[in-house]
């Protein structure tokens, strides 16, 4: 079966995504509006006039040259387990080259390995285990290994492998809480004792979690800026979140939500979620150092998990985690927090580069490695 690849309208793209249980929030048409420095385009694979796959492509221009890095974050949305993956990717590469792309980066949304919470807990306590990769997986999908072999044979290079790459984009390791076929009581029973205790304490202390809107984004951002200073990361500007809200909610009013945890009139924590189909992501979180004893973060997450469950979600995705299990790593506390809900860690097959112009590809790769 051969496909015809062409540009498609935002409406056709969105209609295809709406017919799926899950697709990345970075592969919906509105995500292009979140990234104004990139030009976006929707592509579709057709057979007999029917859409079989889609892609949101982001083009990043090279200064002074009419050449682009073409990026498909967590995409394209195709049949990744097709043994003849080339019939999907070769037309895409040819089209992107015709549009001036000198290199293509994509992120197949394919999970290869999983580790459950019990295995992670034991590994953190074991000084001989340093990274998730050192830990035997709880489950493994052989189709993911087959896909990576096919990609390499077809000339793709995994970002971070010895061949080089443009550095980290979307997270390779994530933490997910399955909701499919489980009651809320069963979900909470999977939490560890500390989590259940903290939820009860927040409730007894009078913590209330409310939904916010565009007007509450500055309140979220105040906490986010404090979190950035405390955890020593570079924050995005408020305009980024306002742009995200405008773009995503215009496409679907439930695509993005803002939650705020309040106690006696004081906003202590806030977070955003993103939803596509039956997949809900915890996107950005923020909190103050004040009144931590009333456990606003546990209350916030529990409300978001409850709402995801009520909306029919099959998975609540805590998004990125570190792959290190070292006690000295500053991110280990976040992994402990997420793993306290049960669920498990998952490893995607990673992001992959295809150099259409090897000279320009290598030059940009070198430039980014020195930033």
UniProtKB/TrEMBL annotation:
The keyword Acyltransferase belongs to this UniProt entry's keyword annotation: yes
InterPro entries hit by this protein: Acyl_CoA_acyltransferase, FEMABX, PG_Glycine_Bridge_Synth
Residue stretches spanning the membrane: none
Alphabetically ordered keywords of this record: Acyltransferase, Cell shape, Cell wall biogenesis/degradation, Peptidoglycan synthesis, Transferase
Domain of life (superkingdom): Bacteria
Stored Pfam families: FemAB
Family note: Belongs to the FemABX family.
Protein name per UniProt: Peptidoglycan bridge formation glycyltransferase FemA/FemB family protein
Organism of derivation: Streptantibioticus silvisoli
């Amino acid at each position: 079966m051969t496909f015809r690849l062409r540009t498609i309208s935002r409406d056709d793209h969105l209609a295809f995504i709406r017919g799926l249980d899950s697709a990345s929030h970075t592969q919906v048409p509105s995500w292009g509006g979140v990234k104004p420095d990139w030009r976006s385009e929707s592509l579709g694979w057709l057979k007999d006039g029917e859409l079989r796959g889609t892609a949101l492509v982001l083009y990043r221009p090279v200064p002074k040259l009419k050449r682009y890095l073409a990026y498909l974050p967590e995409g394209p949305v195709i049949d990744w387990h097709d043994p003849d993956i080339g019939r999907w990717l070769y037309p895409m590469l040819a089209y992107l080259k015709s549009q001036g792309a000198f290199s293509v980066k994509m992120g197949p949304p394919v999970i290869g390995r999983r580790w459950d919470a019990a295995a992670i807990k034991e590994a953190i306590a074991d000084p001989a285990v340093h990274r998730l990769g050192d830990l035997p997986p709880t489950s493994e999908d052989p189709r993911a290994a087959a896909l990576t072999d096919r990609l390499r044979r077809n000339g793709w290079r995994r970002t971070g492998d010895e061949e080089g790459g443009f550095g980290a984009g979307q997270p390779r390791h994530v933490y997910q809480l399955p909701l499919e076929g489980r009651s809320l009581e069963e979900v909470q029973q999977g939490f560890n004792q500390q989590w259940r205790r903290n939820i009860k304490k927040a409730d007894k202390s009078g913590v209330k979690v409310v939904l916010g809107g565009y007007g509450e984004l500055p309140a979220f951002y105040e906490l986010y800026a404090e979190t950035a200073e405390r955890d020593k990361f570079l924050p995005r500007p408020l305009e980024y979140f306002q742009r995200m809200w405008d773009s995503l909610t215009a496409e679907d009013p439930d695509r993005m939500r803002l939650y705020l945890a309040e106690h006696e009139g004081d906003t202590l924590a806030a977070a955003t979620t993103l939803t596509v189909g039956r997949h809900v992501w915890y996107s950005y979180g923020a909190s103050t150092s004040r009144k931590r004893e009333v456990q606003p973060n546990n209350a916030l997450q529990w409300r978001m998990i409850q709402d995801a469950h009520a909306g029919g979600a099959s998975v609540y995705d805590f998004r990125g985690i570190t792959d290190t299990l070292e006690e000295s790593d500053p991110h280990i506390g976040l992994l402990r927090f997420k793993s306290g809900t049960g669920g498990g860690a998952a490893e995607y097959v990673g992001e992959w580069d295809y150099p259409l112009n090897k000279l320009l590809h290598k030059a940009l790769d070198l430039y980014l490695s020195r930033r």
